[in-house]
Write a structure and sequence with these properties.
The structure holds 2 protein chains of 2 kinds. By secondary structure, chain A is mainly alpha-helical. Helix content of chain A is 72%, strand content 3%. The longest helix of chain B is centred in the first third of the chain and has 27 residues, at 3-29. Classes of the chains: A mainly alpha, B alpha/beta. At the A-B interface, helix 1, helix 4, helix 9, helix 10 and helix 11 of A face helix 1, helix 2, strand 7, helix 7 and helix 8 of B.
């Protein structure tokens, strides 16, 4: 019994990482039709932010919490810069954004290599994240690692904040208006260019947060973004493009499927099963979990 | 673009990229057609060129950069001593980028374009297997400094790291001696862990050890929560760890997060040394075991000099490790072979190799001309809270290399 519970939690924790990464991608991909291949490098920028902050702030706990807003700003600023320099010229050509942002992603990887060196770097995790909670004792106790709970909480907080922003604030209303009908929104006096930039800022900033979370899971390196961006694309394609609800469900479903398959078979086989399941699912429902009828967010 | 069309586009792009990747991999395999040709060594100048081939980027860089640094140190020492056959050694360093086709490509460049006298490097067995045909077809020499799974012997490679009977078999003997009756095998998904675990299974069958489970994670993987859960539930007495590179960071932090410690279930690793211990964090590793031929703490004047020289060159906080020591030793062995042969030509160097000795930091090592491996002492170490590894057991005598495990009955049918 505890096997199922503990594997489900493992799946949820894998899903939380996927969700954090897919969230920002979903916003820029779904809302703006931009396939941003450099999203992975924004994640990397967020992770390196923790490393940089730790150079000046010794206490690992303080530096981690401090790195959260800083990483959001750094990755967000990089996103805005990318949008302003390149992407806004390509809004009508989504496939070109793929090529351009892929080039940018390679440049950013090399930049990281030049600044931080080619070998991966590591950060110190704060002591309050190295413990674990025991839910069920006994011979095979069900325990939850603090670091995983922290990532889960961060992912849920990001989803909540994003949903509330889109639903309740005037900025959110403007963002949704631009998505639903750009021309009409512009005619109604909404500065669509500015809204695009803010959307890109938030989407890229979320990648920065994901990067901070990833430092608790593994090492930080120039190619860490590319390793994980494929999974994030899978999440948003399965979830239904631009659908936050779909992304949430898909992230956790894929995480749990991966964890359960890994437990009963092997890591490589689980990977194959997950990919086959995704292909089969998209045959049956090419539009993903949620239908994109109105192109509405949230 | 409607969403369905967009999904199709994405799928098409994915297919295209995978095809492109497959094509690159194939392209790298087409080597030169000059079979068993003698390598052209450029001996015209005042210097003699040698190639250094290590991953300076990617997931293996954490380990391989230190090997490159140790190779450079040995070259500087030999140069300060007057060089080899009166020529100064000129190292040409190439980045294998943790990518096997790149290794093959760069080794071909070093041999054909730079006409080096020998190449030092490679870490993973996959990279060695990728460059092996290049060295054999060009008749050139590779000095390989890392412990590996054995079952290989190429006339074009000198193996200065341990083969299985100098590292894995003594480690298993040690675990049996400690009363271990069941083992869980965790490794990276490529040639070394898979072969090592086949050997461990054969050994286990002979010695009545139960294998509670066997799991592989892709090289560079950072997701280990499921594997840690499986290990925890298996109730095995110990874990035999053949993970490579950065994956160890995630594995050990997840292992500790599951509540497992060196007391409840010790992990014996054969691929993490002092340099990796520092990156993983000694707090997650204290008390865990390793099996190597050398530690920074190994006693002896040669090692004191080596550690002092290395730290003077690269910084007092830089530890030395087994593969670095084997790399450092490999350059000195090559130099001794060349001096003995009186020539840089590969055939002459090979002919002079048998019985060449060197006072290495790990103790006196001797080249076995038949297998082109060297005699090495095995040492089981325990990782301390300070990140250093101390010897808890040693084979006392250097062990004769036996890459095909011919001396062991249980290993029959493995090769």
């Amino acid at each position: 019994m505890t096997v199922i519970l503990s594997q489900s939690f493992t799946g949820v924790s894998i899903g939380a990482v996927l969700l954090l990464i897919a969230l920002g991608l979903s916003l820029t991909f779904g809302q703006m039709g931009v396939i941003n291949m450099a999203h992975g490098e924004f994640i990397m920028a967020g992770a390196y932010t923790v490393y940089v902050v730790q150079q000046s702030v010794e206490a690992p706990g303080t530096s981690l919490l401090l790195a959260l807003p800083v990483a959001f700003l750094v990755a967000g600023a990089m996103g805005v810069l990318l949008e302003w320099l390149l992407i806004r010229r390509l809004y009508t050509r989504p496939l070109d954004t793929l090529l351009v942002t892929w080039g940018v992603s390679l440049m950013l990887q090399q930049l990281a290599r030049d600044i931080f060196g080619a070998p991966n770097v590591h950060t110190r995790a704060p002591s309050w994240l190295s413990g674990r909670i025991t839910l069920i004792g006994g011979e095979h106790p069900l325990t939850l690692a603090h670091s995983r709970l922290f990532i889960l909480a961060l992912a849920l907080a990001a989803v909540l904040a994003l949903t509330l922003t889109l639903r309740l604030t005037s900025l959110g209303r403007r963002m949704r208006a631009v998505v639903q009908h750009r021309e009409l929104a512009e005619a109604s006096g909404i500065a669509t260019g500015q809204v695009d930039r803010i959307t890109f800022f938030i989407g890229s900033g979320l990648a920065g947060l994901a990067g901070v979370a990833l430092t608790l899971v593994g090492p930080i390196g120039p190619t860490m973004g590319t390793n994980i961006i494929i999974d994030a694309f899978l999440v948003i394609v399965v979830g239904g493009i631009g659908q936050l609800r779909g992304a949430v469900i898909a992230a956790f479903a894929l995480g749990v499927l991966q964890a359960v398959m890994e437990y009963s078979t092997t890591v490589s086989l689980a990977r194959v099963v997950v990919l086959v399941a995704i292909v089969a699912f998209l045959q049956w429902r090419p539009q993903g979990i949620y239908t994109l009828r109105t192109r509405s967010l949230a | 673009m409607p969403p369905i069309a967009r999904v199709r586009h994405l799928a098409a792009i994915a297919v295209a990229s995978v095809t492109a990747l497959a094509l690159t991999a194939c392209g790298a395999r087409t080597g030169e057609e000059t079979e068993n040709a003698a390598a052209t060594v450029d001996t015209s100048g005042d210097t003699i060129k040698v190639g250094l081939l290590n991953s300076l980027s990617g997931t293996m860089a954490i380990s391989e950069v230190t090997v490159r640094d140790a190779l450079l140190l040995a070259i500087e020492e030999i140069n300060a001593d007057g060089g080899v056959l009166g020529k100064q050694i000129e190292p040409i360093s190439e980045d294998g980028a943790s990518d096997w086709p790149t290794f093959a490509e760069k080794s071909e460049k070093l041999i054909q374009q730079d006409q080096v006298a020998a190449v030092f490097g490679c870490w993973t067995s996959a990279s060695r297997k990728a460059v092996l045909p290049v060295f054999e077809q060009n008749g050139s020499l590779l000095f390989y400094p890392v412990q590996y799974e054995g079952l290989e012997q190429s006339p074009n490679i000198f193996y200065t790291g341990a083969t299985t009977n100098q590292q894995i078999v003594p480690a298993l003997d040690y675990l049996v001696e400690q009363g271990v009756e069941s083992l869980y095998l965790v490794g990276s998904d490529y040639v070394f862990p898979r072969t090592a675990n086949r050997i461990i299974r054969a050994y286990a069958e002979e010695h009545g050890i139960e294998i509670s489970g066997e799991d592989y994670a892709p090289l560079g993987s950072t997701e280990f929560s499921t594997i840690a859960n499986k290990v925890e539930r298996s109730g095995a007495d110990a874990v035999f760890n053949t993970l490579n590179g950065d994956s160890n960071v995630s594995f050990f932090s997840e292992y500790a997060a599951t509540g497992l410690t060196a007391e409840t279930m010790p992990v014996l690793s054969v691929s993490i040394a002092e340099e990796e211990v520092n990156s993983i964090g000694a707090e997650n590793l204290a008390g865990q075991l390793t099996s190597w031929n050398y530690y920074q703490t190994t006693e002896g004047a040669a090692n004191e000099a080596f550690v002092a020289a290395y730290q003077e060159r690269y910084g007092a906080d830089r530890p030395t490790s087994d593969p670095m020591e084997a790399a450092y030793t490999s350059v000195h062995l090559w130099a001794a072979m060349v001096e003995e042969a009186g020539s840089f030509e590969v055939a002459d160097v090979r002919a002079a190799a048998d019985g060449i000795t060197f006072e290495a930091p790990e103790g006196t090592v001797t080249v076995d001309g038949e297998t082109q491996h060297i005699f090495k002492t095995n040492r089981i170490g325990e990782i301390g809270a300070d990140g250093l590894i101390t010897e808890v057991w040693s084979s006392e005598e250097p062990i004769r290399p036996d890459p095909y495990l011919r001396e062991y009955d249980w290993a029959e049918g493995l090769s």
